[in-house]
Amino acid sequence: MCKFLNTLSILLFCFVGTISSSQNINLKVVGDDIQGYNVAVYNGNQLLVNNTEEFSLDMANTDFSEKTSIKNWTGAEWKGDSNTIELTRKTYLADFDLNISVIVSYEVINKNIVKKSIDITQTGMPIIYYTLTETSKPAQVPSKYVTFEYDNFQGGFAHEMFPSAGFVTPDNQVVGFLMDAGYKNHYTRTTRRRFNGHGGGFVGMRKLPDPNLVSVATLEERARNQNYIKQSFGELYNLDSGKELKLQLNNQYKKVGSVEISKNDSIYKLNINSNEQSGFEMIAPFKDQKIYTVSFLSKGSTPLALKLFRIKNGKKTVELENGIKYIDKFPTQEKEWTLFKGSILVPYIENDSVSLFIGANDAKDCSLQIKNLQIVAHDPSIEPYNKIAMGETVTKTTYIFVEPFTNHHDFVISSQTRLAEAKKFEGSEIEKMMYANFNMLTWITSIDDFSPFNVPNMNYSPDMYNRDSFFSIVSSYNKELNLSIWNKWAQTQNQKGAVGTIITPYMGSIEVKDNEATIQFLIWAMMNKRRFGVELPKDKIQKAVDFVLNEFDDDKDGKCKSHFPLCQVDVLDFNPKTDRLAVNQGMLAIALRTIKELGYEISDSYIEKAEAEYRNFYDVKRKHLLYDKQFPDIIAITDLEPEFYSLWLFKRTILTDEMVVNHLNQIPLLNKVPNSPHPEYGTTAPLIIQLTKDKKGYSFMNTDYQPFGEFGKSNYVGGANDGIYYNGGSWFRAEYCAYVVGAKHGWKNAQKMMENRAWAEINLNPQWPYSKEFIPTKWTTTDSWWPSTRGLCWNVFILMADEVIGSRTPKMDPDFKN
Fold first, then answer.
1. Helix, strand or coil for residue 243?
2. Which domain of life does the UniProt lineage start with (predicted)?
3. pLDDT tens track for 155-189
4. How far is CA 237 from the centre of its chain?
5. pTM of the full predicted structure?
């Protein structure tokens, strides 16, 4: 412990020396034996973060009959050197008759980043529930606060797609606050669950975890000179406990579509005359950063739709995300009332209004009745849900970074790259961004299950789509993640041996298909054995092997037959099974070689037969692989995915150079941009598109020529979805991997297109500098891009693509172990 030499020193500071000279982040211990010690964060000689404590801890026993707190924790002792500081204290909790030990550690990662870890241990009580809050206080009044989604955040909780917030100092330095992944820090970003029954959509949860994961001083608090950024772990809002206020609804409503509406007391009667969206719309009494419950009784002859949209300057914009969403077909009965009840967390929405629509989609000559429409505002009870088991140590890890502030776009990029650097990940800018995004979308399963869970993006929350999680998790060398989530997949395996398509907390799922998930399950098992030398459950692998062999090639002729495409293009199925798809044939070949490596008897001639059938999908006249033999003018980047698997997993080719190069040369390169790395080329390519013989060379699909059956008929009318989704949209992961395949086969444009496509992911829409599900290839304004696509974490799979191309090594992953 640092001892002071005189009384004056006690009143001032005890310093750990500046980590390095000039304008670099550095640490100093502040305090004394009486007040305790905490750490101040400097940039050179400039004080940035001037805290008086390290954290606060609110605790409860398991029945919540006893509660206690540690407020404003400081260390009783400290030690350190030029790179690290460690504060320690042991505390007796009289209310629990319990000793608790805490270590707070700081580590300077580089000249811009500090890592902070809080380790808490207790050895005397079976379980303690707790919430931990870190409050960081600016040394000077900030010029503004920024979050991942807002350039000038007005305060309150920031429930956004990426948990990041910062303040800008008067001399224009941004001090940003980040956190470790949710499965490590034990939080979840989930705010909703799947609706019960078969009504589809989501409703908000009654026990809402981590709404205040990141929060910022409000304008009112700032006016009182209270400035801070908080990170709170393990706190939930209990909507079924606390206070409720029934809100007065506006009696004014607007008709939508072709509908006749009458209202008698609390009953709305709707007679719908056409199959367009029809019903009524009203302004809901919602305010920013509040929680509400919408409820009503309904009956009728058609399923009910419920929608909530933001209204800005009188114009409807985006759908609200954090609660009621995608309620399109809530089931009703003609003679009995059915209760709808769903909560919603309203995030910061810039004081926009919110419209509430109730009616029907795609219904004609039908009726609906709505009774007792009610909106309740909640002042919920706040409860801890994180837990410390007896004899265990729990850790919370956060990070601080500092750099000159330029603009919000750059802050968003830095939030991602600095997080990756803080976790000691090495790579290019795009690799760091993808790695950070993947970490922020990997959290705990639920408030009762702290096992890891990976969600493709916030729009899909709370669901883990297994095929998406494969690409995400296998890109990391983290043993805990790979084995834990592989085992979650194994738990979904049915009697036939197929693994499930989706895992959704709080509700069930019966969706198990003969898609590529079970093949990926076996590939992942092979990778886990290679990487970690583990023994995996033989019964699970045996059942999966049997399923793949019997389901996709039961007659053993080497031709793949399936009800579904064995790739991401999952908007159709085939009854009976089809053998028309190139990607399916390639995936069978990969599956057979994987099964052989797993130790099962698969002959080389059988594998060679399957590979030859994959090559047979190459049309010599058209010079590309046939996506679907019934639609020979359709070309798809995903048809090269099996070739990528072969290069990645087995370091061997299946297709010839001529096949790959000609295929890639046929795919149009779109979205040409003058300031891209290679402006002579496009920055994106369509995942799947129709080739034509005119000068243009391609066309988006229409109802007359498209391979998606009813999906295409209903979505490709009149060019409304040209360049959108599976009508020419651009998917980064598939596209980038195809370019790597091209590079391995000598395609001259490969490196340039890899660079262009990485540039497009960050810069094509300057308001969205992060990973996306897809990028449109036809658009006039980025306002038309789907907000739901933001932040798809399976794009981190480019780490494996870059390993194949040779631009990165496994050792660049901080979790890699020889």
1. strand
2. Bacteria
3. 999 999 999 999 999 999 999 999 999 999 999 99
4. 22
5. 0.95
